[in-house]
Every structure is written in C-alpha cells, then in structure tokens.
Amino acid sequence: MNLQAYANHRKAHNLIGQTRVSVLRAINTGRLEEPAVRREGRGWVIDPALADEQWATRTGISVNNPRPPAAVVSSPRRQASTAPHPPAPGGPSYAEARRAREVYRAERERLELMKAKAELVLAADVKQEASRLARQVRDLLLIIPNRLAAKLAGMTDQDQVRSELQAEIESALRGLADA
Q1: Which of 100, 116, 132 is the last residue of a domain?
Q2: Pick from 43, 36, 39, 56: nearest CA to 4
Q3: What is the pTM of this model?
Q4: How far apart are CA 8 and CA 34, in angstroms?
C-alpha cells in the first residue's frame, strides 16, 4: 500500500492522520518505521496493520480508540517540532520520549507550586541561613570567656564556676533561639 492509499485507509477508519502529509510526517518523526514502512524506489510501501499498531503505540491513538487522551492531542506541526528526527536505534520511541517530557513538565510544575506555597525553599537559601546561624553560635560562644574571665578568676568554688558558665551558655542559647 502506498502513502496515499494508507492515508485513505486511516480516513476510512476515522483515525487521526488522514492526509498524505500527516502519514509522511509520521514516517519522518519515527512514529512509523521498519518493518511497517519501507522505501521502495521513490515511494513508500506501507503495511497498514503494522503501521496502525506503531502509530497507536507511539502516539496514543488506536483503531478502537480513535481519539487520544487530552494530554496526547496536538497538532501535526507540534508533533513534528517535538520529534524532528526518528529515534536512534535502541533509543526511546516517540511515545516514550513524549511521556518522559510530560512527566518532567508535571514535576517541574509541582515544584513551582510548592515553592509558591512556601512549602519548598531553594537549597542556596537554606545554606545561607545555616551559615548565618553557625556564625551567630560561634560568636556567642567565643564571647563567653571574655565576659566571664574577670569574674571567674576570683572564684575558688568549682560549683560556683560551673553555675556561672552554665548560666552564661544558657543565656547565649536563649538569645540564639529568640533571634
């Protein structure tokens, strides 16, 4: 069956891709390939059963379900722009690549929504805040010896020294918690 006959076959079965151009585009984008389609001279020879099966598995359109799900419907121009070349041998099919792209897009939109709801923060912001807090802890702890040195130098009771140090450390940590 040639290109035009296959387009007429799709039209007779009320399938999307009813023109000679849409069938040629399906071949060029890799939705139809060997063994369903083969080059013979200057034209194409198409096995309609295999071609229908490839078309269905690679675009979400089948003979039993001529209308694809809403996420799969797009114009032939859009399909051509998303997969301008046939997939590399052993690479993902058109449908697999499209599915992966949709999963990635949905995940990106989910993350953007979480960020907008303030459920998600940037890692750089978290690192910056952690660094700020670490510096503040360091500064508060390093100032304790300077503040207590004179007071502790005159003390001889170990429990009193421990109590003063404890109180100063707790004071510094409370100040940090309030900040």
Answers
A1: 116
A2: 43
A3: 0.35
A4: 20
